[in-house]
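CORE FACILITY INTAKE
Project code: CF-77B
Contact: R.S. (postdoc)
Sample description: multi-component assembly, four entities in total
Requested service: structural model of the whole complex
Turnaround: standard
Below are the sequence entries exactly as provided by the requester. Do not edit them.
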Amino acid sequence: MLLVEPVSGGTGGGRRCTSVSATIEDVARAAQVSVATVSRALRGLPNVAPSTRERVVAVASRMDYVADPTASRLAGGRRMVLGLVVPMLGQWYYAKLFSGVEAVATVAGYDVLPFTTSGPGGSERFVRTLPFRKRVDGLILADAPFDAQQFAAVAATGVPIVSLGSFTPGVWGIAVDNAAAARLAVGHLTGLGHTRIALIGGIPDDPFRFSVPVDRFHGYQDALEAAGLSYDPALVVPGNFSAEGGAEAMHKLLAAPTPPTAVFACSDEMAIGAIQVARDAGLDVPRDLSVIGIDDHDISAYVGLTTIRQDVTGQGERVAQLLLEHLEDRDDVQVEDVHEAHPTRLVVRRTTGPPPDRASHPRV
Amino acid sequence: MLLVEPVSGGTGGGRRCTSVSATIEDVARAAQVSVATVSRALRGLPNVAPSTRERVVAVASRMDYVADPTASRLAGGRRMVLGLVVPMLGQWYYAKLFSGVEAVATVAGYDVLPFTTSGPGGSERFVRTLPFRKRVDGLILADAPFDAQQFAAVAATGVPIVSLGSFTPGVWGIAVDNAAAARLAVGHLTGLGHTRIALIGGIPDDPFRFSVPVDRFHGYQDALEAAGLSYDPALVVPGNFSAEGGAEAMHKLLAAPTPPTAVFACSDEMAIGAIQVARDAGLDVPRDLSVIGIDDHDISAYVGLTTIRQDVTGQGERVAQLLLEHLEDRDDVQVEDVHEAHPTRLVVRRTTGPPPDRASHPRV
DNA sequence: ACCCTGTGTGGAAGCGCTTGCAGGCGGCGC
DNA sequence: GCGCCGCCTGCAAGCGCTTCCACACAGGGT
């Protein structure tokens, strides 16, 4: 009886009438124990007699009781929220990432709160308002487009941080070896005999903030050098990590006096955009032009795109675990940063082949 | 002075040392007013003298004060969280949706908490545990795979609900007119002269729970009938809403005694999977086979896919607004449900054309 | 028999806010 | 010139939990 207390507040007025559900106090009363015991019993803490625990659990489940996370958080001092800072939601890569992070966080009882840095105000706004303050226990910085000063401002909040996509000294993180991935891609092309290999890269304006494309650029240069090829700046164009940007980039490349015979795009979406433009221009891919991407986007297999595969969801899961571990070990003096490299793999499909001049066999 | 109170708890021990930031009390002391006044001043409530407000705001900003949302929520009785129930994160459609919802919710000061129903335990687990209880102010049900009883269980929690993707009596919601979209797609194909038109649809096992594919199926039948064509069950296969499923479906269709000359896939991803299989089988798209999808996925333009366009991000924004409005108007007796239809549009690209037998002109 | 330990439990003080209520103060109407 | 009404402001009671502490009690050593 008495599920709804007539006492309590005392306001009669227009108090928003959400269907009142049981509080810990209701459970305590029904189970004839104190609220402290209910709290301990339900959370599996020690020092509760088995019989008591059993009774409390039974009563709680009968009453459909669930603890109010808001109250737990306030009292417990832990927000049970992981912040995920990404340039944007809604893009394949970040959606997959979110999905991985969310899966791990949920199991551990954490919520995931996304923050985007490419919306209105961009990363400036983010750094100025630091919107995660008092809202998260830890932060995952994914491809954070911050310079050193901005990064320091974020770190100065004292919120534990892990990073994804690039490594920062003093910050745990995971990333694929972007230079190696690029070498793999370009190496595949040089191995096929290509000598004019273009790069469709990142965002034109802030080359120093977003390290992924610059690492890939370095890998591209390395692979060129390893193959004895010279680097031609005219073959490097930004692609903005979208299909549209990849298409624009390809237009530029095609307009050059001597167009490339192969293109390495820093994402599959850009590669797909580039292929489209090439085909529209009457080129046959891969006979006239080879294209390779990075990611292995869900649909890359279905457009036959040769690419460098990375497991984005897996990275999301792993970086979430890393943050969780980090939150546990706050007190321990950590001797060494954890900088974990994730593997990539070449997946050869049907958009790469030998360059046109030596095309003796039809295709790979 | 005295930013960090030496008094308070009294525990000397290993209290987790997060960098202590200012509380409302610190601000009140510094501004020489009560915490109540600080609260009112900072939230723009009336009945605060302009001079007082100014001073409080100045002090707060100097101290880098931000209110702790956890405490506000507990005290205010509103969680400031919108739940978004989706089958999964990480798929294009739901990522876009999330992105739209998040944008609107953020502006209104709400967080978005995703719940997935196709993870471990699926929707059964969701309905059994009702994990959103005490965590959200309202719920967006996107393509919720619930039967009437499950839906009732969710509604019985008293949490305000809006739906997306299909309409339920008594529940505000938005959706595209899926039957109309399907008619548009199939009408395009019949208009081109096709008479054997296949449908690659939804999930094989629960046809009654997820209304989107069944609505599209009805639209498909309607369009067939309108064109005077008979319905052939052999031409309807499930595709699971993934590129992989679309590919499998196409395999089945191709194995039939008389394969279709056109395919309507209920998503672009399935369409792309289907096209791949058709081309592998030596068919030319669109000469030998026309394929049309639904969505206008980001990359559809770049694979030349003809499709029915819908604005998913816009739907996310709109459904979030709707929920927000709904939360405002709880008390008002709402005469009529809000059931809002969102537009779709045919986008003709290069995967549809006249059927092979009457292919006089090369392509559209 | 005694003290000491360990286990189980309840009381109560918060966590950092919001908000109902009461009270002080000045200005206006009559 | 007095009362009344508003406007500001502060007090204090929560919101529903967690956790520190005190305490009661049972059992083992010496």
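Facility notes:
- Chain B touches chain A through 58 residues (CB under 8 Å).
- Residues 24-67 of chain B form a domain with the 434 Repressor (Amino-terminal Domain) fold (CATH 1.10.260.40).
Invoice: internal transfer
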